[in-house]
Model the fold of this input.
Amino acid sequence: MPDSSSTTSQQFSKLGFEEEYPFDSHFLDLDGVKYHYIDEGEGQPFLMVHGNPTWSFAFRNFVREFSKTHRVIAVDHIGCGFSDKPQNYSYTLTQHIQNLSRLIQSLDLQQITLMVHDWGGAIGFGAAIEEPRRFERFVVLNTSAFRGKKIPLRIAVCRLPILGAIAVRGLNLFAGAALKMTIDKPQRMTTAVKNGYLAPYNNWANRVAVHRFVQDIPVKKSHPSYATVLRIEEGLAQFAECPLLLLWGMRDWCFHYGFLKEFQNRFPKCETEAYEDAGHYVFEDAHERMIPRIRRFFGENPLKSH
Done:
């Protein structure tokens, strides 16, 4: 059963971002490992699933706004944010999907609107494929839920043996560089926002998932997560008739226009809003425009009566 606590939030309360993230912490015990999530507001569930190297902090502006009318749940994958960071753990796509599915089941979420970004696309859609009847609408930001053709060089370097670990876990180059490489409006990366993104990844041990996510990107068929991505890709068709809104930062060098086009091809009835002045962290560059667009999407696509 879910367990509520504010212990982790209190531990981070002196790190300079508490006003940006004023939410109560909740935990689900996953066989002795604590899975952190925030659960704000009441109403139909709006589930938000982050990528790497972010955490639920990335959705803070959306949590504040939509918790006025919805029950907003935003998770931290194991190894991320306020969740536990075990050093010997199966940090695979399949494991992350199973974790999210267990939370959905434990909270018995129904008529879910799913919002995903980066790795959250594969993880969130992976969970949706497990129990499709629980999901009704999708909000998709700069992500993928299908096989990619190649890995950008600046990410591929982080996968190199020894050097990758030194860069990602030792020097924190992956999370640190993301603060500059993912946005079009650097002035938005205030000290408090930077602290929020980096605080959970403050040492070698706490960066374990950041590195494992990079290693888990499947390109070759021999990769352990390749079959999982293929299963997700093949399962997307069942949601083709569901309302889906694409909100895309067009200055994203990783999840570029090609990924947007792939989603549009797979979901021909989808709605799209592209932001020419936003990068991968589209939620930082364009959240003021995204929030009313999502509101309109909800209004035009009401949930079905059950």
About this structure: The radius of gyration is 18 Å. The domain at 2-300 is CATH 3.40.50.1820 (Rossmann fold). DSSP finds 13 helices and nine strands in the chain.
